[in-house]
Amino acid sequence: MYTGVPLASAKSQIFEAVLGFLPDWVQITVLALVVLAVVASWVVKVRRRIARRRTSRAGQALPGAAQYGQGAGAGHPGPYVPSPPPSSSGERGADFLGPYAPAQRQESGADFLGSYAPSQQRGNPPA
Asked: Model's pTM, two decimal places?
């Protein structure tokens, strides 16, 4: 009695449909390779877990793990860090503008009052 509800997922139905067109010896080989891949992934997972447990009990660092202060991940450029440009003086960094610094301000123009600037008198506060 078929109720119209599929018993397997769509992926497994597609997999069975593709295998249905192949000869029997190919179907058996493909299924054996799939089973072998699953078992191999389990074996690798178990071996890594055993190695991790052994190293943690022995107090050793994990192979391939970054040591404290060594740096790893996206924020650590490693050997790809750019070398600083050669500089004879200590003038460098974010505050050093170099040739891009604005020119010295000259005392002239509409904002410069010169001798016409009001002078503050010491005894009387400005009103």
From this structure: 0.38
